[in-house]
Structures are given as structure tokens and as C-alpha cells.
Write a structure and sequence with these properties.
The protein has about 210 residues and is mainly alpha-helical. It is about 85% helix and about 0% strand. Helix 6 runs antiparallel to helix 7. The longest helix has about 35 residues. The radius of gyration is 19 Å and the shape is elongated.
């Protein structure tokens, strides 16, 4: 590749990152304005969690943690169980992204119990997978596999095709890392078959999961 082409690609990359950043900041600004007018109710909890997610998206983890903790505090005051679960999940997610695996496991396990009490199957499935990711990050592949298989079972039961494909990818990765090539191929091929049935946007999201692994 010529130096000119490299400079063009670099320029385009920087421009794209700039526009993505502007889009995120616009959402953050809108949510912050709404936050000033919201009452201390469940709607405010939802807004605090949205702000948390936006700050996670721009890797501002201190701000994200601040809003997640505020969401948890208000949820506890309101005795709003779903809000407590969402905020607890977010706190665990932030710890995971920062590599604080012990804290991540602590909060994700709490969130899982809350979601199970509320019987919210989609979030039970995603939290099981997140716990699997934490164990994977710690190098505990056997326990990670247990959680991925549990998540797969729930996703299959509720017909979540994207969740099923994600689990197939994660399980395939575990078997690959254990040098179990036959099982790895089995789950990778299942993942590919599942991906064919999904829309392009969901496919791209799952491809990022493969890249992260």
C-alpha cells in the first residue's frame, strides 16, 4: 500500500471515529437535559442506566460507573427490582471491561439472581453468557463452558436466534482453546448456520464477538 493510500485510510478512520463520537455525545447531552427535569421515579432510573450505557460506549468508565451507581441507589430507594437488576448488571459490565474480574463476577452473579427472581429469560441468558465471559477472561475455560451451555439452553427455549449463535461461537472458542478441534468445528458450523438466518446488522454484531475472542 502506498503512503498516500495509508494517509487517506488514516484520515477516513479518524473522520469516522469523530462522527461516531459526535453521535454518542449528542445522545449524552440529550439525556443529561432530560435528567434535570425527571422526577425521582422509575423513569429516572431508566435514564440513568441509558447514560451509563452511553458512557460505556465512549469508554468513559468513571462516568459510566457514576451513573450506574446512582441508578442502583435510586432503584433501592424506590424498591424497583428491575432497575436494581439493570444497574447491578451495568456495574458488573464496567468492572469486566476494566479487567476487574472478581468484582465483575460479584455484580454479575447478583444481577443473575435478580433476573431469575423476576423470571426475565432474555436477560438471564445474556447474564449467564457474561459470567461465562468473565471466567473465560480468567482462563477458567471449564467453568466458562458451563455458563455458555446454560445460556445456550435458555436462548434455545425462548427462540433467541442471535443469542443461540453467540453461544455457539463462544462454545466453539472454548473447545478450540482446549484443542478439541472436532467439537470446535461442530459449534462453529452451527454458528454459521445460525448467522445465515439473521439480518445483516445482527451478523455484524456477532462478528465483533468473534473478533473479541
Amino acid at each position: 500500500m502506498t503512503q498516500t493510500k495509508k494517509h487517506i485510510l488514516l484520515g477516513l478512520t479518524l473522520c469516522l471515529c469523530h462522527f461516531i463520537s459526535l453521535g454518542q455525545q449528542s445522545k449524552i447531552d440529550s439525556f443529561l437535559l432530560l435528567l434535570k427535569t425527571d422526577k425521582e421515579d422509575t423513569a429516572k432510573v431508566a435514564l440513568l442506566n441509558k447514560l451509563c450505557n452511553q458512557y460505556v460506549a465512549v469508554s468513559n468508565f468513571p462516568k459510566a460507573m457514576d451513573y450506574a451507581e446512582k441508578g442502583l441507589q435510586l432503584s433501592e430507594q424506590l424498591k424497583y427490582k428491575f432497575g436494581m437488576a439493570e444497574s447491578t448488571f451495568s456495574i458488573g459490565r464496567i468492572h469486566y471491561l476494566q479487567g476487574n474480574y472478581d468484582k465483575a463476577l460479584e455484580y454479575q452473579s447478583k444481577a443473575l439472581k435478580m433476573y431469575e427472581d423476576l423470571d426475565i429469560k432474555p436477560t438471564i441468558a445474556s447474564t449467564l453468557q457474561n459470567i461465562g465471559n468473565i471466567y473465560w477472561g480468567q482462563g477458567n475455560y471449564s467453568v466458562a463452558l458451563e455458563y455458555y451451555l446454560k445460556s445456550l439452553k435458555v436462548n434455545e427455549a425462548i427462540g433467541n436466534k442471535g443469542g443461540v449463535a453467540t453461544c455457539h461461537i463462544a462454545i466453539g472458542v472454548i473447545y478450540y482453546q482446549q484443542s478439541n478441534w472436532e467439537k470446535a468445528l461442530e459449534y462453529y458450523f452451527q454458528a454459521l448456520e445460525g448467522l445465515k438466518k439473521l439480518d445483516n446488522k445482527t451478523q455484524q454484531e456477532l462478528i465483533h464477538i468473534i473478533d473479541d475472542k
